[in-house]
Amino acid sequence: MTNGTNLDPWYYNYAQRTGGLAASEVRALFAVASRPEVVSLAGGMPYVSALPEDLVVGAMSRVMREQGPVALQYGSGQGVPLLREQILDVMALEGISGSADDVVVTTGSQHALELMAKIFLDPGDVVIAEGPSYVTALVIFKSYQAEVDQVPMDEHGLIPGALREHISRLRSAGRTIKLLYTVPTFHNPAGVTLSWERRLEVLEICRENGILVLEDNPYGLLYFGERPPVAMRSIETEGVVYLGTFSKTLAPGFRLGWALAPHAIREKLILANEAAVLSPSSFTQLVVSQYLSDADWKSQIGTFRGVYRERKEAMLSALQENLPSLSWTNPNGGFYVWLTLPDRLDSKAMLPRAVKELVAYTPGTAFYADGNGANNIRLSFCYPTPEQIRIGIKRLATVVNGELDLLDTFEGTGSLTPVHQEQSILPPTDMR
Amino acid sequence: MTNGTNLDPWYYNYAQRTGGLAASEVRALFAVASRPEVVSLAGGMPYVSALPEDLVVGAMSRVMREQGPVALQYGSGQGVPLLREQILDVMALEGISGSADDVVVTTGSQHALELMAKIFLDPGDVVIAEGPSYVTALVIFKSYQAEVDQVPMDEHGLIPGALREHISRLRSAGRTIKLLYTVPTFHNPAGVTLSWERRLEVLEICRENGILVLEDNPYGLLYFGERPPVAMRSIETEGVVYLGTFSKTLAPGFRLGWALAPHAIREKLILANEAAVLSPSSFTQLVVSQYLSDADWKSQIGTFRGVYRERKEAMLSALQENLPSLSWTNPNGGFYVWLTLPDRLDSKAMLPRAVKELVAYTPGTAFYADGNGANNIRLSFCYPTPEQIRIGIKRLATVVNGELDLLDTFEGTGSLTPVHQEQSILPPTDMR
User: Fold this and answer.
1) How far is CA A248 from the centre of its chain?
2) Interface predicted TM-score (ipTM)
3) B15: nearest CB among A10, A120, A212
4) Per DSSP, what are the bridge partners of residue B241?
5) Which long-range contacts (CB under 8 A, 24 or more apart) does A326-329 make?
6) Is the peptide bond before A132 cis (omega within 30 degrees of 0)?
7) Which residue in A has a C-alpha nearest to residue B212's C-alpha?
């Protein structure tokens, strides 16, 4: 009954935008990868077990004891004032200063993204994004009938020259560019970080062209060595809407994120938030606020950093050991490694065989609006243990080598001599 | 800075739909009415203090002890399976049978409403609704550039003959009618209930005309005497999307509601939900699920019924005592009484004087898309105590009588002789 298009009596009643709502490849994978015997390198689930439950239980009990009726009640569409003040402290760690009055608490930063799309995007508008880009951002933009134009990256992030070219090409074609959507730090899925010089340059390009920057920064505090450059919002105030979240530094189960926006945009975000959900959950807002008041949250973020650093190192060692002929990015933080397969391999076509070998990943095509990324794979090191990661990469190597053997046999070609790049350059998608 | 339209550098970048996002009158009132000395008969806040906090703390602690990592993690876009099963038990109390597979958990039923609007409404589409209708539903429909056509009610709810007329007029004008949005039971703001016979008739009219019914039922279990007629969804399966919520029978602070939808629509709702928030909060879903497993939730709903019945009676006695010349509805459940002032009075213009007298209410115009309702007032009896209600209505009488005296003085007319209707008929908005 799931493909019952013809059986749906309301088929001709949906809005035009609903045509853009399709199940993402990542979504289908969650089902497959949830079998316990599969090592999943696919999802982006934080390792919440690194958070001591006592801290959460303590915060909850105190909230119910001291503010029960407030926690159980509707709140404001903007969010709890104390929590918005505390969010300023979190953002200060990335160089941002702002007013709690310009913070809007949302149901995960995902919902801030949805609200930004709702208030800015008319059908036919263009959103510029990195290529590759966060899957569910692509889904949202498409759901508001906007087109996503993806600009290539290299190991220093989005390439400013390419951004200029894309803007000028789109302008010549008479297109309206509404937003630059970017994950500048520890990019999902590419694992790269926009350099300081490029942050300045990208902001300058957007300022010149009247393009609002939507800076999505879920991973910035999860660095493994040196701190990354400060947030773009710390450099530019009026031209940037900044999105943050507690999903990665605390836990996604609370569904709490935020937007920091120029005053007039913040006002629209509040109205859109009220229309959509009346108010974010008072209960989870107060629990998180209490946690931030009572717990040593900065050292908890340090714990997460250590967990993810160890897992990333396990993944890179395993790749070096098992798939030395391939190339991959070396992230200095965050959750993801971006792997490039030989051109002959198709990561999506290979996935069923991988699942048969009990390892799952996300095919690169999921991160492009245009079918690009066929020989890329996003590998997540956030959730599995180092030991599982080693097993998973070993299984992946079996699959990749098996596919290559198969191709060699059928094509009768000689052995493959791929170039191994220690610091990989992402596929030049712009030049295909 | 709040009216800084000319100062907003992004003013010309917003989507067209954003023009429809304006601060509701109810929203502005929340600020005014939150001063402690004001008796607020304005908001629709449930009296959450009637919920024993121990029940919530117990459920929370058990969830964290037994399912901590699940509660803190992302979940599915459809919601926790056990909770969806339990939601079937809740809906069974209103005559509904369905499959947990067709339930989608949302961030309050408000978000289900937003998602329905997003997947069904193109600019220029028409949503038929009762006149008056729930404020934030009007805001949502407008935010998707749909037009709301409001059909009058009487003491038995929406008038089927008027519905037929409106449909035929809209069809003649070539308009596309996408939804009938209705709160059939203990209507917000009118306080009336659609009779059993009319439920059948309205469903038949919608079936004939290919109009999907969006049945919003937050109050159905909060009846004061006899049970209301069963839900429209219990009569018709393929033509109704049903919205329910835990906000009134448990607490709004969890932000948990749901949609029960025909299979194909349910599939779109899940995709739209995932795009908007990835998943509803695992944490609040598991807490509510645990509460439903462990607590005597049916008897807790009985407690709420008793609280609200007493408050409604206090309000009606106070109206009878202090404003006997006016008319009002006599709700058999829910949160609201709809008061009709003499034609000469304007409830919105009168509001500042009321707030000066330390009583707040919602002017009737808030519930119409077209400026109607000027001599109506929505009075909420859900949150204030019976004693506060008596004080509030006494203050309201001072204001109303003061306004009438003033008009008499200035107009030099004789005394007013309004008709008092025990069972009020709502203003015939269709015939003005």
Assistant:
1) 11
2) 0.93
3) A120
4) B214
5) A326/A400, A326/A418, A326/A420, A327/A418, A327/A419, A327/A420, A327/A421, A327/A424, A328/A379, A328/A424, A329/A155, A329/A190, A329/A191, A329/A192, A329/A423, A329/A424, A329/A426
6) yes
7) A10
Rounded to a whole number of angstroms, the distance from the CA of B129 to the nearest CA of chain A is 17
Is residue A125 within 8 Å of residue B12, measured between CB atoms?
no
Give the mutation candidate from A18, A47, A179 for the B interface (greatest B CB count, under 10 A). Answer: A18
Q: Which of B10, B48, B274 sits opposite A72 (nearest CB)?
A: B48
C-alpha span between A279 and B247 (Å, rounded): 12
Residues on chain B touching A64 (C-beta within 8 angstroms)? 53, 56-57, 60
Residues B288, B250: Cα–Cα separation, whole Å? 9
Q: Inspect the interface and report whether the beta carbons of B120 and A74 lie closer than 8 Å.
A: no
Per-residue pLDDT of chain A (432 residues; tens, 9 = 90+): 344 455 899 999 999 999 878 776 556 665 666 788 999 999 899 999 999 989 999 999 999 999 999 999 999 999 999 999 999 999 999 999 999 999 999 999 999 999 999 999 999 999 999 999 999 999 999 999 999 999 999 999 999 999 999 999 999 999 999 999 999 999 999 999 999 999 999 999 999 999 999 999 999 999 999 999 999 999 999 999 999 999 999 999 999 999 999 999 999 999 999 999 999 999 999 999 999 999 999 999 999 999 999 999 999 999 999 999 999 999 999 999 999 999 999 999 999 999 999 999 999 999 999 989 999 999 999 999 999 999 999 999 999 999 999 888 877 554 444 434 333 344 433 333
CB atoms A278 and B108 under 8 Å: yes
Contacts of A227 (CB under 8 A, 6+ apart): none
Encoded tokens for A378: 């996003």
Residue type, A258: W
Closest CA to A215 of A268, A165, A179, A267: A179
Structure tokens at A306: 């250590």
The answer to whether residues A266 and B2 touch, using CB atoms and an 8 Å cutoff, is no
Between chains, do A72 and B15 touch, taking CB under 8 Å as contact? no
Q: How far apart are CA A170 and CA A172, in angstroms?
A: 5
CB contact under 8 A, B264 and A4: yes
Q: Is the Cβ–Cβ distance between A90 and A97 less than 8 Å?
A: no
**Which of B30, B212, B271 lies nearest to residue A13, judging by beta carbons?**
B212
Contact between B309 and B330 under an 8 Å Cβ cutoff? The reply is: no
Whether residues A277 and B46 touch (CB distance < 8 A) is answered with no
Q: Is the peptide bond before B132 cis (omega within 30 degrees of 0)?
A: yes
Residues in chain B closer than 8 A to A144 (CB atoms): 15
C-alpha span between A361 and B43 (Å, rounded): 49
Q: Is A69 within 8 Å of B48 when comparing Cβ atoms?
A: yes
